[in-house]
């Protein structure tokens, strides 16, 4: 038992004594604290633990056990969209391109044979496919480009429910709404078994090519999957076949008997995987993932004190502190590849005034908001939007950012004098807001979002704003409030935007482009920022590639930061813990353990 | 008696129908997430949301949705599919129900036996050292939250992260196969879950028994020359225990809906955990399914308690 356990027991014993002495006799409310699961993980620049285990010597064999608090969303590569699902998808499926653990910026060809060929008008992308890659049993045949075409087509079927069509709906002939059944897409051609060509309706080849790392590009055999896809919803999720080094254990008919929803997933080696065609080492022989390790504290301690185990995702905050101080060889951290922020509605007076917004930013105690999510070890304070270890981060100024005084590294806890000076520029001579309106702030009713919104409310009130904080269920925060312009939410009590692939356009455009604010439906631009200069720059930068692209989007990042339409308050880091005898390797793309690289020390 | 049971069963069916209607309405009236939007991903178009809503049948009238829901339950015992992973809710619940039943019934046996024993000893030896000690311990057990007690017991006695490696740790239940092996892994959860209940039952029985032992008919029994053991057990406890039986039935019924904290700490895959996860994710169909299971369990246990009453108390007749 570790010292922290002893301290916990001692504190607990004292608490009981206190209870008895108080002689209340009533039972507790039994609230299960624990599992705050705030994201974290160190960035190289922040001096935290890096992912050097990826370079450590490893041995083949053994069984790895993963303890996870939640199940995968889906095993179906056409449907999965969340981290746990990605962790399984990228060890069982091979996408056109993917990321090695050590580099989450530059993808490498996976099923693809070389870089994508982009036409000069940026409307056509041609990808060659490696020969010799086979599907797992019971399909057992070689993958062709037609399998990838079918994967795209089924993605748009309502039965499959692909969750990110916005990245691919510029393919010529791509459905504008989900289809009944799987329909052919005219803009995808397969001139031979090893070539796939995408025709786009607009010159968007660069971000499109960057998105070819997503699970939608994992091949799906039509002759096998179509009967499952014909059902509503598709049952391919429980009959999925693999192309990667591992497969979900299945029977002769393809039933994934190794998947027990909400309980466990058993991965075994894919007998048809040829290591000569892949860069993954696939060290362990099998993986058993328990997807209902419901108590984060208990499961984390089982991992830290046990053998052959890793913990999926962030452990509770107390465990993060423990590993950071006492078990430094049992964790890694990776940047989460995103930012959390408080959007300020720029269509509501006086927030339409840039100096008012800058004043709020200047006086904002962002360190307090960060504390609500776990503190310094779990996140860095942003100075702009493009996050660490992401394309364009360095060009945008790195950790120091573009140099705005209201969002500088020196201003962690709020500078009220600076805030007052901006308020005076905005026409408030007292340095504070003097209006009588009450502004609506909406947040989730559970921590850490609740706690961070309470911090935000206090920061606005410091400057004289009256805020009514409305706490609603987590699910309703965005869908029913912050993303609905007609609700007139002045401040959203917390939002986050995280990468889907390594391209700066995908990190900034959906959140800040004025031209993407829809007339109806959900709006990701929660600040409703409509800056003509930003919009024009985005449209221009979308057509660029290479270093010019990074520079252009870094400049846009600076413009947006200057607009102060939101208060970015954390760049999350993900902390991952492991048993001592596990050589854990994290993948910076999906910010979780990479099962194809993690090994057990023999 | 048969007519009474039949009448109660009919009322149970009506009660369940009312509960389905109430849970159904709650999720439409109260602010909650839209399942279609939740499933639509990060940047859904209105068309995409509409298509998913149609697929889930959410674009139908409220009355039709309710009718369709009840019809499926009655004809096929079909609660629909989970909104989060498409799995049939019936499978999700019935996969987990045996685990919850094993946990709850095992713990109930412990807390009932221990609670009754302590209650009798304390009442009979009122004011003694044993009475004070046992009631003090009961107060301690009532004051200790299940979640805290579970963590402490694991950190002390579990074979993986404990100081003394005595009992199987969290998650071991799922790895065990066979009745004996599974029962072995449940010893610690049973004790933790039973602790507070045993203490409450002990205090309840002690109080009832003290009142009963002061009744005239007890004095009469003693005057007739019956042994003290017979007076206490046959005449005193039999009367004093009926309120305890009522509470026992309701407690078991409620816990069948899920001993959430115990299941969470010890990683037992039960209905409570399923219910909690469903609430977290706004998974309406699963929440409705688990709510019905809970209501059904409470209704049935209430009926069982009433039947047991007739055997315990000769004055009760239906």
List the helices and strands and how they pair.
The complex is a heterodimer of chains A (602) and B (318).
Chain A: H1 3-22, E1 63-67, H2 83-92, E2 97-98, E3 108-109, E4 117-118, E5 124-128, H3 145-155, E6 188-192, E7 195-199, H4 205-210, H5 222-229, E8 246-248, E9 259-260, E10 264-269, E11 286-290, H6 296-305, E12 309-311, H7 317-325, E13 331-335, E14 338-343, H8 354-363, H9 366-372, E15 379-380, H10 416-425, E16 438-444, H11 449-462, E17 466-472, H12 474-482, E18 491-492, E19 495-498, H13 504-512, H14 532-541, H15 546-563, E20 566-577, E21 582-583, E22 586-587, E23 592-593, E24 599-600
Chain B: H1 2-29, H2 35-39, H3 46-55, H4 62-76, H5 89-124, H6 129-143, H7 146-157, H8 172-175, H9 179-185, H10 187-213, H11 216-223, H12 228-240, H13 242-256, H14 260-265, H15 271-281, H16 284-312
Helix pairs in contact in B: 1-16, 5-6, 5-10, 5-13, 5-16, 6-10, 7-10, 10-12, 13-16, 15-16
Compact description:
The complex is a heterodimer of chains A (602) and B (318). By secondary structure, chain A is α+β, with helices and mostly antiparallel strands. Chain A is 27% helix and 16% strand.
SSE arrangement of chain B, N to C: HHHHHHHHHHHHHHHH
Helical residues, percent of chain B: over 70%
Low-confidence stretches of chain B: none
**Percent of sequence in beta strands of chain A:** 15-25%
**Strand proportion of chain B:** under 5%
Low-confidence stretches of chain A: 1-50
Would you report the number of β strands of chain A? 24
Shape of chain A: globular
**Helix segment count of chain B?**
16
- Classify the helix fraction of chain A into a percent range: 25-40%
Q: Give the total of beta strands of chain B.
A: 0
In round numbers, the mean pLDDT of chain B is 87
């Amino acid at each position: 038992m570790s010292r922290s356990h002893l301290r916990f027991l001692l504190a607990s014993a004292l608490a009981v004594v206190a209870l008895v002495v108080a002689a209340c006799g009533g039972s507790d409310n039994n609230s299960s604290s624990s599992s705050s699961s705030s994201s974290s993980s160190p960035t190289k620049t922040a001096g935290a633990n890096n992912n050097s285990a990826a370079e450590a010597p490893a041995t083949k064999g053994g069984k790895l056990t993963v303890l996870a608090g939640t199940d995968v969303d889906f095993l179906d590569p056409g449907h999965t969209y969340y981290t746990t699902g990605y962790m399984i998808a990228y060890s069982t499926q091979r996408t056109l391109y993917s990321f090695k653990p050590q580099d989450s910026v530059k993808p490498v060809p996976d099923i693809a044979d070389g870089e994508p060929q982009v036409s000069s008008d940026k409307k056509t992308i041609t990808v060659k496919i490696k020969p010799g890659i086979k599907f797992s049993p019971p399909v057992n045949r070689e993958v062709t480009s037609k399998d990838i075409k079918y994967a795209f087509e089924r993605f748009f079927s309502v039965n499959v429910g692909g969750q990110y069509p916005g990245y691919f709906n510029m393919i010529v002939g791509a459905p504008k709404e989900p289809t009944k059944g799987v329909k052919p897409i005219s803009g995808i051609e397969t001139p031979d078994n090893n070539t796939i060509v995408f025709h786009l309706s607009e010159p968007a080849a660069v971000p499109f090519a960057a998105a070819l790392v997503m699970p939608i590009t994992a091949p799906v055999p039509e002759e096998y999957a179509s009967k499952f896809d014909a059902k509503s919803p598709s049952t391919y999720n429980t009959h999925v076949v693999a192309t990667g080094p591992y497969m979900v254990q299945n029977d002769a008919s393809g039933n994934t008997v190794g998947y027990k929803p909400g309980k466990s997933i058993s991965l075994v080696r894919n007998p048809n995987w040829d290591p000569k065609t892949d860069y993954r080492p696939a060290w362990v022989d099998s993986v058993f993932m328990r997807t209902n390790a419901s108590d984060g504290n208990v499961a984390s301690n089982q991992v830290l004190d046990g053998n052959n185990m890793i913990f999926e995702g962030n452990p509770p905050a107390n465990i993060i502190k423990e590993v950071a101080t006492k078990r430094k060889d049992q964790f890694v951290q990776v940047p989460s590849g995103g930012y959390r922020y408080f959007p300020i509605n720029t269509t509501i007076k006086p927030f339409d005034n840039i100096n008012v917004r800058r004043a709020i930013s200047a006086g904002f105690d962002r360190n307090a908001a960060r504390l609500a999510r776990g503190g310094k070890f779990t996140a860095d304070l942003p100075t702009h939007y493009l996050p660490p270890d992401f394309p364009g981060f360095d060009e945008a100024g790195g950790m120091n950012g573009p140099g705005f005084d209201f969002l500088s590294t020196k201003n962690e806890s709020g500078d009220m004098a600076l805030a007052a000076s901006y308020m005076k520029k905005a026409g408030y001579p007292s340095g504070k807001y003097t209006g009588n309106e009450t502004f609506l702030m909406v947040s989730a009713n559970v921590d850490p979002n609740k706690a961070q919104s309470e911090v935000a409310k206090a920061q606005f009130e410091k400057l004289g704003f009256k805020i009514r904080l409305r706490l609603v269920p987590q699910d309703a925060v965005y869908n029913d409030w912050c993303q609905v312009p007609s609700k007139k939410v002045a401040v959203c009590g917390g939002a986050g935007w995280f990468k889907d692939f390594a391209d700066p356009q995908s990190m900034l455009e959906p959140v800040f482009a004025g031209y993407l604010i829809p007339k109806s439906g959900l709006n990701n631009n929660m600040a409703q920022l409509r800056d003509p200069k930003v919009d024009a720059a985005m449209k221009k930068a979308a057509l660029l590639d290479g270093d010019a692209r990074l520079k252009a989007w870094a400049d846009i990042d600076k413009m947006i930061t200057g607009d102060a339409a939101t208060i970015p308050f954390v760049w999350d880091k993900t902390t991952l813990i492991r048993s001592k005898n596990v050589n854990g390797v994290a993948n910076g793309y999906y910010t979780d353990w990479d099962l194809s690289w993690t090994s057990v020390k023999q | 008696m048969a007519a009474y049971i039949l009448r109660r069963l009919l009322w149970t069916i009506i009660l369940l129908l009312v509960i389905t209607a109430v849970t159904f309405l709650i999720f439409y009236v109260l602010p909650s997430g839209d399942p279609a939007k939740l499933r639509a991903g990060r940047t859904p178009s209105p068309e995409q949301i509409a298509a998913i809503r149609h697929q889930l049948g959410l674009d139908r009238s409220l009355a039709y949705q309710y009718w369709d829901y009840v019809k499926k339950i009655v004809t096929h015992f079909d609660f629909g599919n989970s909104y989060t992973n498409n799995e049939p809710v019936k499978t999700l619940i019935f996969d987990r129900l045996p685990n919850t039943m094993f946990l709850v019934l095992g713990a109930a046996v412990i807390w009932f036996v221990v609670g009754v024993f302590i209650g009798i000893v304390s009442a009979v030896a009122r004011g003694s050292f044993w009475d004070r000690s046992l009631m003090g311990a009961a107060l301690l057990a009532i004051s200790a939250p299940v979640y805290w007690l579970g963590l402490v017991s694991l950190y002390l006695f579990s074979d993986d992260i404990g100081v003394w490696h005595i009992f199987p740790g969290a998650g071991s239940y799922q790895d065990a196969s066979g009745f004996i092996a599974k029962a072995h892994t449940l010893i610690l959860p049973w004790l933790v879950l039973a602790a507070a209940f045993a203490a409450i039952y002990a205090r309840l029985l002690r109080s009832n028994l003290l009142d009963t032992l002061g009744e005239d008919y007890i004095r009469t029994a003693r005057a007739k020359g019956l042994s003290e053991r017979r007076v206490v057990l046959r005449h005193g406890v039999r009367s004093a225990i009926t309120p305890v039986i009522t509470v026992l039935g309701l407690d078991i019924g409620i816990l069948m809906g899920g001993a959430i904290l115990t299941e969470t700490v010890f990683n037992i895959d039960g209905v409570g955990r399923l219910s909690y996860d469903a609430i977290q994710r706004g998974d309406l169909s699963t929440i409705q399914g688990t709510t019905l299971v809970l209501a059904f369990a409470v209704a049935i246990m209430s009926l069982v308690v009433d039947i047991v009453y007739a055997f315990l108390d000769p004055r009760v007749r239906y």
